[in-house]
Design goal:
Keywords: Endoplasmic reticulum, Membrane, Signal, Transmembrane, Transmembrane helix. With about 425 residues, this protein is α+β, with helices and mostly antiparallel strands. The chain is built from 8 helices and 29 strands. Helix 2 crosses helix 7.
Length: about 425
């Protein structure tokens, strides 16, 4: 096998491993709860993830050793934790995210102040400790016939199949804490919102009037955040929604018996959070003059050029062509002179043909793409644009014929006047 072929195989293997399931550290409120989430962990293991489960007080806990991160993803199912064992603290978790890694945070009504502060760092404001989401219309009745108006049957999902899968015919059960997300947030997405008849309330306190912020769709049950470095965080107000008990429940909603969609929803959303879905990779950026395959060092004004880039979508370690009509290319010098959507061929190659503006200077190709549920693409490539050289202009321009004629007439008149002056008295 040749050296180049070996190198190509190695690169493909590295790329596959980079987007296949990674190593996950899962911290529980108690190690006795391991079996409680076995269906969830088994589904992630089947998806290719390696999961290490520990109690949040374990003295051997560490995310980083000698400057190297030991895990790719972190699951925090310890809502009451005020701190962690070992060398893990809030700042370590934030550094973990800043380095491009992912966090799944599950809480409940007994959430500690430390977990509320961590969620706030992600841009998600959890409701006060002790509050619960109630709904007296959209609730589930379990097999024992007991009515529990805090067991919400939610169906209001974000319109992004890459994040949540679906559509689901069964409800998603939720029992826990609501959160609020600022309406102007650019990074946070409400994945699962409460029904319009739901509200958040602390049963130990009297409620003189309905709460203003935690009512209906304004109450976020599950929130996803994608940072600018493409690290992903999910904050779920119910850690119970990931449990075997909810996954395998048969409940009655509005008089009809149904299973739950929790398993498919939670596993799909977790795979998204761990960058196993919705990952876009742009590569092989190239440009050339029309009629030539060679990439030039720069352009001349008014040249006809073609720009191309390959964009692939990675899911479960497998790359497939990305298909979309909303990726825009900008050709910028201080301000965009060209801003046009790229066209794709269905095989992952996006291209655009355009005429270079009649302005010379240093331009750059610029792509800044963000589509809900997908990782961000930001590409920049600089290219100079020069004016015509002195020997590249056309010698005779049709529009200049009046000027040519005026110059010729002046010369003819001068010759006639000189002849008349020299040879006539």
């Amino acid at each position: 096998m040749s050296r180049h072929l070996l190198l190509g195989v190695a690169l493909l293997a590295a790329l596959h491993s980079a987007y296949a399931g990674g190593k996950v550290l899962m911290l529980l409120q108690s190690e006795k709860n391991i079996d409680r989430f076995s269906s969830f962990t088994d589904a992630l293991t089947a998806a290719g993830f390696t999961i290490e489960i520990k109690g949040y007080k374990d003295s051997s806990l560490k995310l980083r050793e000698y400057g190297t991160w030991l895990y790719d993803d972190l699951v925090l199912f310890a809502p009451k934790a005020e701190g962690f064992g070992g060398s893990i603290d809030q700042q370590t978790i934030l550094d973990f995210v800043d380095s491009g890694h992912n966090v799944l945070l599950g809480v409940n009504s007994d959430v500690s102040e430390a977990m509320r502060n961590l969620a706030a760092e992600f841009g998600v404001d959890l409701d006060d400790r002790g509050t619960k989401v109630y709904d007296h219309f959209h609730y589930a009745v379990k097999e024992d016939g007991k009515q529990d108006h805090t067991l919400i049957a939610a169906t209001d999902l974000v319109d992004s199949p890459v994040m949540v899968g679906g559509p689901y015919k069964q409800p998603i059960l939720f029992r826990g804490l609501a959160a609020s997300v600022p309406s102007n947030s650019e990074l946070a997405t409400v994945v699962l919102s409460a029904p319009g008849t739901a509200y958040s309330h602390d049963p130990k306190k009297s409620m003189i009037e309905p709460p203003a912020l935690m009512v209906g769709a304004a109450a976020s049950l599950v929130t996803a955040v994608q940072a600018r470095n493409n690290a992903r965080m999910v904050v779920a107000g119910s850690v119970e929604m990931f449990s075997n008990d909810i996954f395998n429940s048969q409940v009655t909603v509005n008089g009809a018996s149904t299973a739950t969609a929790n398993k498919d929803f939670c596993v799909t959303l977790t795979r998204w959070a761990f960058q196993d879905r919705g990952v876009l990779v742009a590569s092989n950026l190239r440009h050339h003059l029309l009629g030539s395959e060679e990439q030039p060092w720069g352009y001349r004004v008014n040249d006809d050029v073609e720009f191309l880039v390959d964009v692939m979508e990675h899911e479960g370690g497998v790359a497939k062509p990305y298909k979309a009509d909303d990726i825009q290319l900008e050709f910028i010098m201080l301000n965009p002179y060209v801003r046009v959507p790229l066209q794709h061929d269905g095989q992952g190659t996006f291209s655009l043909r355009f005429k270079v503006p009649d302005v010379y200077g240093v331009f750059k190709y610029f792509i800044d793409y963000s589509h809900r549920g997908y990782s961000y693409i930001k590409l920049t490539h600089q290219v100079p644009v020069r004016p015509f050289k002195h020997d590249e202009y056309e010698r005779f321009l049709v529009c200049a014929y009046p000027y040519y004629a005026s110059a010729a007439s002046v010369m003819a008149a001068f010759f006639a006047l000189g002849f008349f002056f020299l040879y006539h008295k």
